[in-house]
Design a protein that fits this description.
By secondary structure, this protein is α/β, with parallel strands linked by helices. The protein contains 19 helices and 25 strands. It starts with 5 loop residues before the first helix and ends with a strand.
Length: 558
């Protein structure tokens, strides 16, 4: 067992020049745009040249609802990718980039852990290749152009009370949720209420992650609805002629980033919409590029399967024409005990009864994912405090669902700890047994789509929406947006909208606070319960322990 921290393990790794990682996938160095020695962007020209190649097998890693005990979804994604490469399968990993907000807030880093990490860990968790800065700039350019247009006479007749385009910043900052702009007199414009979201909740982020090319990106940016007139007719981004300049700012950000795992296997890290307030998947262009270059692609979707996997299937796969061949649901003994009612400080003690009780959460996720027609394997992410009896309780439970649970020790052992999972997943993916289809058809009315997710995935009895919300959905249907999928903004901690309701609750209702049309991204955001599109920092933020040491190295990222 290691006593080293994640950052110490990452720093001790021997990384290969990024050109050598590219060679493993058949990418010549001329098609790599290097950022230093260990990361590079893959050129748009090279990606375009791959379009006629067959796709590899797509494997999704998802999880139970997160608990403070930790599940290790990214760690398992990396470990499985390394494991597949170790058994001779040409495999690439696709994960999201980290947001500075949670990095300095509660979460710390987001590049895996132990001996299953993607490196360079410090770069990935901080500025990386500047993609998030480009998205922030493009988003806020549009914000500036809206207020500027109103200031210079407002020929588009924008109703300043109905500007729906907020500003963004890649930081958790509750003070910016609701603000007033343009104070200070006539020279500063017309005062109005506004607010900030976190960059990862920006529609520009969602568009970048769903666009297939720069042309598609510009088209989608132009489709963004930025405001409404007094007659409630929409004003689009292209009406302001902002789409071209925004595309210019996003030109490099659109190209996927190539890095490596600790075992020098290729990893694409690109895009990063949150899964509780956005669609929670890495970019379509990165996933499709990986599928053309590797025989197997392991990707993840954020938080529990009720959010990440649901959106991966219903939004990303639907939009990009993708079809997963197998799904891994990550669980831990510790999280099962927590779902079974055990307090965090008592998780180290054996409690088979609590494990059995907590398995209800895991069971519901497995059933839900299977309802999309894809085969499911449970990965038990191993902790040293797990006992054989507790592990057996999970194995037996999963067997009753018609699936299997495999213990994984990648955190301590790297690829050696995922050989069994890798072998089984490769066999399932190769069998062609997946019969994937989304949960609802395009032509189902919007409110029925919301009800379908609430009842079939969350197992709610009811969706609570006032007349204003229902009327808004009907207006969007009449305007031609009825075919869009739904993106639920909901707490990640529970199937319900009450974050304290663990396990597999039934008999609950899903209250809708507001709905937002992301016409460019191509989905309707449904904000449920108390969820915030601009998080706040915790009482003791991670930022308090992040520092440079005497050697100039970063400490405190974990």
């Amino acid at each position: 067992m290691t006593h080293l921290t994640d950052i110490e393990i990452a720093r001790a790794a021997t990384s290969q020049p990024i050109q050598e990682i590219g060679e493993k996938l058949g990418i010549d160095s001329e098609h790599l745009l290097p950022y230093g020695h260990d990361k590079a962007k893959v050129s748009a020209e090279f990606i375009a040249s791959l379009k006629d190649r067959p796709d590899g097998k797509l494997i999704l890693v998802t999880a139970i609802n997160p608990t403070p005990a930790g599940e290790g979804k990214t760690t398992t994604t990396v470990g499985l990718g390394d494991g597949l490469n170790a058994i001779g399968k040409k495999t690439a990993i696709c994960i999201r980039e980290a947001s500075l907000g949670p990095c300095f807030g509660m979460k710390g880093g987001a590049a895996g852990g132990g001996y299953a990490q993607v490196i360079p860990m410090e770069d990935m968790n901080l500025h990386f290749t500047g993609d998030f800065h480009a998205i922030t700039s493009a988003h806020n350019l549009l914000s500036a152009m809206i207020d500027n247009h109103i200031y210079w006479g407002n020929s588009l007749e924008i109703d300043s009370r109905r500007v729906v385009w907020r500003r963004v910043v890649d930081m958790n900052d509750r003070a910016l949720r609701q603000i007033t702009t343009s104070l200070g007199g006539a020279t500063n414009g017309f005062p109005r209420e506004a607010g900030f979201d976190i960059t990862v909740a920006s529609e520009v982020m969602a568009i970048l992650c769903l666009a297939s090319s720069l042309e598609d990106l510009e088209q989608r940016l132009g489709d963004i609805i930025i405001a409404y007139r007094r007659d409630l007719s929409p004003v689009y981004c292209r009406d302001l002629k902002a789409d071209g300049a925004m595309t210019v700012l996003l030109k490099d950000a659109m190209q996927p980033n190539l890095v490596q795992t600790l075992e020098n296997n290729p990893a694409f890290v690109h895009g990063g919409p949150f899964a509780n307030i956005a669609h929670g998947c890495n970019s379509v262009v990165a996933t499709q590029t990986a599928l053309k270059l590797a025989d197997y692609v392991v990707t993840e979707a954020g938080f529990g399967a009720d959010l990440g996997a649901e959106k991966f299937m219903n939004i990303k796969c639907r939009k990009a024409g993708l079809s997963p061949d197998a799904v891994v649901v990550v669980a831990t003994v510790r999280a099962m005990k927590m779902n079974g009612g055990v307090a965090r400080e008592d998780l180290g003690e054996e409690n088979i009864q609590a494990v059995k009780q907590g398995c209800a959460n895991l069971g519901r996720h497995v059933e839900n994912v299977k309802s999309f027609g894809v085969p499911v394997v449970v990965a038990i992410n191993h902790f040293v405090t797990d006992t054989e009896s507790e592990i057996d309780a999970i194995r037996q439970f999963v067997r009753t669902l018609g699936s299997e649970a495999i213990v994984c020790k990648h955190w301590a052992q790297g690829s050696e700890g995922t050989r069994e999972l890798a072998t089984r997943i490769a066999a399932i993916a190769d069998s062609g047994s997946s019969q994937f289809s989304p949960l609802y058809p395009d032509d189902m009315p919007l409110f029925e789509k919301i009800e379908t997710i609430a009842k079939r995935i969350y197992r709610a009895d009811d969706v609570l929406a006032d007349k204003k919300v229902r009327e808004q959905l009907r207006q969007w249907e009449n305007a031609g947006y009825g075919h869009l999928p739904i993106c639920m903004a909901k707490t990640q901690y529970s199937f319900s909208t009450d974050q304290n309701l663990r396990g597999a609750p039934t008999g609950h209702s899903v209250p809708i606070r507001e709905v937002r049309l992301s016409a460019g991204a191509g989905f309707v955001v449904v904000v449920c319960g108390e969820i915030m599109t601009m998080p706040g920092l915790p009482k003791v933020p991670s930022a308090e322990v992040i520092r440079l040491n005497d050697s100039g190295q970063i400490e405190g990222l974990f």
